[in-house]
Every structure is written in C-alpha cells, then in structure tokens.
Description:
Blueprint: E1 5-10, E2 16-23, E3 27-29, H1 33-45, E4 50-52, H2 60-64, H3 96-109, E5 119-126, E6 131-140, E7 145-153, E8 156-158, E9 165-166, E10 180-183, E11 197-201, H4 205-216, E12 220-224, E13 231-233, E14 235-236, E15 239-240, H5 241-251, H6 254-269, H7 284-291, E16 296-298, H8 301-306, E17 311-313, E18 316-320, E19 323-326, E20 331-333, E21 336-339, E22 343-344, E23 377-379, H9 386-410, H10 412-424
Parallel strand pairs: 2-7, 3-4, 3-8, 8-23, 10-21, 11-12, 11-21, 12-17, 13-16
Antiparallel strand pairs: 1-2, 5-6, 6-7, 9-22, 14-15, 18-19, 19-20
The chain binds flavin-adenine dinucleotide and NADP nicotinamide-adenine-dinucleotide phosphate.
NADP nicotinamide-adenine-dinucleotide phosphate (NAP) binds at residues 70-73, 163, 169, 184, 201-207, 209, 224, 226-227, 294, 315-316, 340-343.
Amino acid sequence: MENNLLRLVDHDKDFFSRRCIWVNGPVIVGAGPSGLATAACLREQGVPFVVLERAECIASLWQKRTYDRLKLHLPKQFCQLPKLPFPEDFPEYPTKRQFIQYLESYAKHFEINPRFNECVQSARYDETSGLWRVKTVTASGPSHCTTEVEYICQWLIVATGENAERVVPDFEGLKDFGGEVMHVCDYKSGETFEGKEVLVVGCGNSGMEVSLDLCNHNATPSMVVRSSVHVLPREIFGKSSFELAILMMRWLPLWLVDMLLLILAWLILGNIEKYGLKRPAMGPLELKNVKGKTPVLDIGAFKKIRSGDIKVVPAIKRFSRGQVELENGQKLRIDSVVFATGYRSNVPSWLQESEFFSKNGFPKSSFPHAWKGNAGLYAVGFTRRGLSGASFDAIRIAQDIGKVWKDETKHKKTTTACHRRCISQY
Length: 426
Ligand SMILES: Cc1cc2nc3c(=O)[nH]c(=O)nc-3n(C[C@H](O)[C@H](O)[C@H](O)COP(=O)(O)OP(=O)(O)OC[C@H]3O[C@@H](n4cnc5c(N)ncnc54)[C@H](O)[C@@H]3O)c2cc1C
Ligand SMILES: NC(=O)c1ccc[n+]([C@@H]2O[C@H](COP(=O)([O-])OP(=O)(O)OC[C@H]3O[C@@H](n4cnc5c(N)ncnc54)[C@H](OP(=O)(O)O)[C@@H]3O)[C@@H](O)[C@H]2O)c1
C-alpha cells in the first residue's frame, strides 16, 4: 500500500509528530463492511486507495461492539459483499464469528490493508487545489506518542457507518442509581447477570435480543417500550420474511405488501398489542422507508414476552438508588440497566461539509441517490438498507471513480505534477 503514498513531509519521531501524505486515489474512512466492499470494487477497477480505520482491526462494530449470540438476521445471500460470496458451508444465518471470518478473508482476498488506529478528526475540501484534506490522529506506544497525519486526495469516501457512536439518553437520577449501567454495545452475554433484575431500555432488534439472552441466563429482564414497534417473525412458513417481502414487492404495491406482512405476522404471532407492543400506524416497510426504523425480526423474544419472562414496561420517568420509576407511576427495583437505545452517525463531528450530508450525519438524498456528492465526495452504507444497501453503493462508487481514474491515468504525469504543486502551497 505504501506505493500509493507519497510522503511529502516527515518530521522527527518525537512525542508529537506531523506528516503530510499525498494519496494517489481515494481515501476511504472506515474499515467496516462498507469500506471493505468499496475497497474491493476499487481494486477490481485498478484504482489504488487508502483505508483509514480508528480501531486496530477491520469491522470493529462486529468485533468489539456486539454481543456473543448475534447472528445475521437476514439470509446470507442478502448480506454478502460484492465479488466474493459467503463460503457454501455457511448456514442460512451466519453467526457473528462466521461473518467476521468472512470479512477477514474478504480483506485478504482483495489485499485491503487499512491503516489502523488512525481516527479521522477532520476532512475538508480545499477549493483552491480541488483536493480533500483529511486529518487523522494516532496515539500509539507505551508513551502514547501522538502522530498527526494529513492525507491529501482527490476523492473522499465516507464509510464510517450509521452506527458509529452509541446513543445514551440522559435520565433524571441516573447518576444516583448505583447499579451497573451499560450500553448494549458493551453487552456480551447474560452470563454475568444471572439472578439479576435488569432494565433493558429500548425494543429494537438489540433490546429484544438482549432481553431474550438475559432470560436464557436466568436473569429477569423488564423491557422499556416507550412508543411503538413492528415485530415480524424472522421466518414466515419457512421462508425469510425479508425475502418474502422482496418477492412480493416485485408484483405488489408497498402498502399491500405491508398489509400482507401484518396479516401473516398476526397469523403467526397473534395480537402483539395485548402484550404492550403497540404497532406503529405506518406499515413496517413504509416506516423503514420514511423514518429508517427497522422492524424487529423476532427470533424468540416474543414467546418470552407472551410467557411473562420478559416484562414489557412503559417509558421511564426517573431513576433513583436501586430503582426506576415509570411513566405510569410504577416503581421497579432493579440491579442493572442496559441501554439498547440505538446509535448515530459521527460524520458531522469530522466532515466539514453541509451540501451532501445533513446535520444528522446522513446524506440528504435517499436511496438510490445517496452515494455521490460534489467534488469527489462519496458515501457508502448510509441508506438504512444494511449490508445489501452498502454493496449497492460500493459498486457504483467504484465504477464512478474507475471511469475518471482510467481517463486521468492516461495523462498521469501531468496530473501528478499539478497536484504536487497544489500541495506545496500549504
Ligand atoms: C448489532 C447489530 C447487528 C446488525 N446486523 C445486521 C445484519 O444482520 N444485516 C445487515 O444487513 N445489517 C446489520 N446491521 C447493520 C450494520 O451496521 C451494517 O450492516 C454494517 O456493519 C454496516 O457497515 P459499515 O461499514 O457501514 O459500518 P460499521 O460496521 O459501523 O463500520 C464503520 C467503521 O468506521 C470506523 N470509523 C468510524 N469513525 C471513524 C473515524 N472518524 N475515523 C476512522 N474510522 C472510523 C469504525 O471504527 C468502523 O470500523 C447490524 C448492526 C448492529 C449494530
Ligand atoms: N440480529 C441482528 O441482525 C441485529 C441485532 C441487533 C441490531 N440490529 C440492527 O442494528 C441497528 C440498531 O438497532 P438497535 O436495536 O440497537 O437500535 P434501534 O433500532 O435504533 O432501536 C432503539 C430503541 O431504543 C428506544 N429508545 C431510544 N431512546 C429511548 C429513550 N429515551 N427511552 C426509551 N426508549 C428509547 C427506541 O424507541 P423509539 O422507537 O420510541 O425511538 C427503540 O426502541 C438496526 O439496524 C438493527 O436492525 C440487527
């Protein structure tokens, strides 16, 4: 990869050092599935690239911030990245370990070697030179020596994910609670919660699955449902609900597919509202399209709700020592709290740009137009369509850059000389 990098300035290796690196090709920020998929597609186009990753491994969300029992919740054909399918012997729903193994071999296959421990602090487009300036900070070694690097490139690909940072709401009295409090990204298994009363805040896929995991480890979870939620069985009559929805969408309008899904869900699960799980007014697919809210694909939690092993409770009013007070005035004694309250994009904290990305860290345009901005800016994996959406973006980005790259490399000598001149002004 160093071939792609032309080091312009390399100061001493003291406590604080600064470097400036010209990247021949795009800089990809993030080595999750989206960044890897884009890198692989660029590799196929013969375009060199640099991947910057804040963690010390690829797919850090999957390796470090997910619980042990996690499996892909869509069948494998909807989760594989471009150009390299999952191994044939993988099950229909690969485990987290298998998915990581696949990503590791994917990176190896396409010779993707990210620059680890490089957290992008800022990126801005320099109008004068027509180039992106991307600053990273690395803290390494026992003395925590800090290195600042500035990468200069023609194309910037944002692949930092929809789930870059945890969301933890602030509740009155939480600091006086006294028990264990964690976000679901730090939850690994219910093993350490055996015999405990646990409040799980949130009823998305994480909240549901962690509540189930807690039950399976003889803990007693109470799950907070503050608004509404669509619960669908992961499979309907042996076929994945997701696959079924995709098939039906080929022939039927979205509202009708939503209606059929809800009828089928009712046949399998019954009336979930009886158990405190109010359904949203919009259908599951429409809600996903309009608000980005993912339906829960049930893998057993609902049965535990029906049996009373998972208690469904309303919104939180406040915490106090060892207990939580709910909106309905009920007070529960609890030992621990797991916030399964979701994630957010971190793009606004580092990307100095406001035309393509909005303040919430997502592109302003929606699928299928959310992959390309102005001046060589691209986004992959921000259409709330999981891994298949990321693959769609990755293919288009690589084709788009590949075309320009092929034209430009015909006049490579002139172009490189011009860029170098631009950089040397700063
Ligand atoms: C628990 C869980 C289960 C999921 N299961 C599925 C599933 O079964 N199927 C599905 O399709 N989707 C699933 N998803 C959605 C999932 O987020 C995506 O499918 C996938 O991980 C997105 O990949 P990504 O590369 O866009 O983002 P991420 O996997 O989040 O990768 C982004 C990378 O960018 C790095 N990064 C962030 N900020 C910076 C920075 N400033 N500088 C440098 N690097 C940075 C991060 O460290 C990370 O490695 C799941 C999500 C969660 C939370
Ligand atoms: N097996 C799998 O593949 C799997 C497993 C887990 C997660 N995922 C995916 O990962 C992504 C994130 O899922 P997630 O479940 O972690 O997050 P999520 O879908 O964003 O759900 C967050 C939940 O927290 C609730 N919440 C937020 N703030 C709250 C507050 N102040 N008080 C009470 N409740 C609050 C939300 O309620 P409101 O709806 O009222 O806002 C919602 O129920 C999704 O795309 C999901 O599909 C996949």
